[in-house]
Design a protein that fits this description.
Layout: H1 11-19, H2 25-29, H3 33-37, H4 44-57, E1 75-76, H5 81-86, E2 91-92, E3 96-101, H6 107-117, E4 130-135, H7 142-151, H8 156-161, E5 163-167, H9 171-187, E6 190-196, H10 200-205, H11 212-233, E7 236-241, E8 243-248, E9 251-256, H12 259-265, E10 268-274, E11 284-291, E12 299-305, E13 308-310, H13 338-350
Parallel strand pairs: 3-7, 3-10, 4-5, 4-6, 6-7
Antiparallel strand pairs: 1-2, 8-9, 10-11, 11-12, 12-13
Helix pairs in contact: 6-7, 9-11, 11-12
Amino acid sequence: MELSELSSIKPRQIKLLQENGITDIKSLSMSVPRDLEDIEGISGKASTKLIWDARDVMGMSSFKQVSEIEENYDFLKTGSERFDDILNGGVSTGRLTEVFGSFKSGKTNLAHTLAITCQMPIDEGGLDGAVLYIDTENTFSKSKIERIARRFGMEPKKALANIYHARIYSTDHQFQMIRAADQAVIEKNARLIVVDSLMALMRSEYVGIGMLASRQQVLNKMLHELSRIAETHNVAVLLTNQVATFMKGSYSANDAIGGNIVAHGCHFRIQFKTKGFSANTSLERTAIIVDAPDLAPEVASFFITEAGISDTEKVEYLLDEEEEKVPVKKITKKKKSSKKKAVATKSAELSDPLESL
């Protein structure tokens, strides 16, 4: 529903809200009064009234029978059927999915694969939409995207044109682009938001126990904003996350960083593990469902390949790589003019001493 359909809102307020990424009544109803107060021209009293009125329109001010609740989740296939099976069809829309693991465990590989499968038709396991890719580690690869596109029978140039990339340089920049994603989802018909990775920049900027509270507050705002966007627009959100090694008695174990804020803020938490003592021992990986609202804690194995994640170590390409054809210029010999030929003949005749006798 458009903001103009709200009876208590003024035209100037509509313009101010739209400039700050709030474009409809649903997104307004899920906002926080404190955030609207930061917008110059909207007072604290007005922000509360607007949000409460929006909630009344959306039917959020009363309790509903559970039988009336409609779940309209779509599922995005991952490239591995075994992984899809434990996810009940793939990565869910409308909710946040966190994937954490050590380096080279396949997190970015999954992100690239989903960036292609998202563009596929819904009846083929895709979402038939574009992708917003928030890249905090500079690990996005166009060549990998092209290979994955050919694997699924998609033209590489068309696939690349449907992915909108943002290279992030600071935590503040990351939050800015997450806020910008709200409007970009509408403008670009995006069905998937990728944040690769969630904690990389915060881990370097907020150092020490003294900055932990500040970091967690920023992190909480990011997750709340992403969750609101996911639910408002029914898009899938994939968050990759790094790990830290913790000592548990005489043993060590890897766990996701971000603490309880991330643990409670993400709907699905999946851990990727490598096989063997080294990440290069094998290309086989294990996906473990650590936490999910409606899934059992299951395990699935898959492989990371040059063309995304797969059930097998080798993948088949539905679209062969196009060979670049370099046009060959035909070299044509220039014909000598008859005048030059005549002169040459004459000079040749004169050059013969016997002809002068």
